[in-house]
Amino acid sequence: MWREHRLQRDDHALAWFTFGDPVPGRPPLVMLNGGPGDDHRYLRPVAERLAAGRACVLYDQRGCGASRLDRLDGASLHVDRFVADLDALRAALGVDRIDLFGHSWGAILALLYTLAHPGAVARQVLVGMGPLSPALAEVAAANLHQPLSAAERAALLELRAARKAAVAAGDRARHAELHIRQMRDFAVRAWFWDPAAGARFADAFAAGYGFNPLVTPHVWPTVQAIDILGRAEGLAVPTLAVYGAQDFEPAAQAYLLRERMPHAEACLINRCGHVPWLEQPEAFYGAVEGFLAGA
To answer: Within this chain, do residues 157 and 20 fall inside the same structural domain, yes or no?
Structure first.
């Protein structure tokens, strides 16, 4: 039921995928995965649930998954190129307006697109949005370390250094092994309220691994150079910011956006971390489906 497409850009072919059929009067829901560096696949189950009565569109961001770039550098991976790809995809869909759903880094990208093209977005859902400033990034980093003992924090720092060395050496297989170990042994403890859900996620992460470690070092500095909260002042696009109350990403960001955006709402889900559709599906889908339906 998934259909695959290609959109030719100036430097690569953007791979995009659709589920469900277009419905007159309902904008397609374009879904942006996290990372940067991940592909779209982990969001497919969410799209299949949300596709009732609308078309859902997922895509691999530039340099990720099937959207391969010949050159990975600060120019090809500038965040403005990611925003331009999304607008080209909207045009290829033949619509003036889309609904947006972004998770983690994808929520930042969704918000940046909406800031650049407010008239092109009917509604946006921002789930577990990544840090909107360097100061908030420090909060997220501290939250990632909070569940760990001093010895575990030292081990995590060593593992991260080994990942960086593997990338520098061009050893992608070694990097994948270390990244999967970091997720299984450390990250899920800050990502999830329920350890069993975290273990299932780690297994799925390992089985479907497709992360490109060369993307983040180029795109993230271009994101941090933007005063996103300052630019969001007065943005009138209806927005739902969803956080698990136990997410390592600072849930205060939902309220910072609500202070600045006249039609922004905050949804905080208890006993839930960074992947709310796995830990609290009833509350998560109830909030998101209701918002997208105009409730």
So the answer is: no
Q: What is the DSSP string of 126-183?
A: EES---SSHHHHHHHHHHHHTTS-HHHHHHHHHHHHHHHHHHHTT-HHHHHHHHHHHI
- Specify the residue for token string 């659709």: 18
Concatenated DSSP letters for 52-81? TTS-EEEEPPTTBTTB--S--STTTT-HHH
**Are 250 and 195 contained in the same domain?**
no
Instruction: Let me know whether 15 and 110 are in one domain.
Output: yes
Residue 57 and residue 110 share a domain? yes
DSSP string, 212-232: -TTTHHHHHHHHHTS-HHHHT
For 109, the enclosing helix (H) or strand (E) is helix 105-116
Instruction: Please check whether residues 106 and 228 belong to one and the same domain.
Output: yes
Per-residue pLDDT of the chain in tens (295 residues, 90 and over written 9): 899 999 999 999 999 999 998 888 899 999 999 999 999 999 999 999 999 889 999 999 999 999 999 999 999 999 999 999 999 999 999 999 999 999 999 999 999 999 999 999 999 999 999 999 999 999 999 999 999 999 999 999 999 999 999 999 999 999 999 999 999 999 999 999 999 999 999 999 999 999 999 999 999 999 999 999 999 999 999 999 999 999 999 999 999 999 999 999 999 999 999 999 999 999 999 999 999 998 7
HSE at residue 4, side-chain half, CA atoms within 13 A, is 9
- Same domain assignment for residues 193 and 275: no
CA distance 112 to 110: 5
Domain that holds residue 99: 3-132+215-292
Into how many domains does the chain fold? Answer: 2
Q: Is 23 found in the same domain as 116? A: yes
**172-182 vs 150-168: helix crossing angle, rounded to 10:** 160
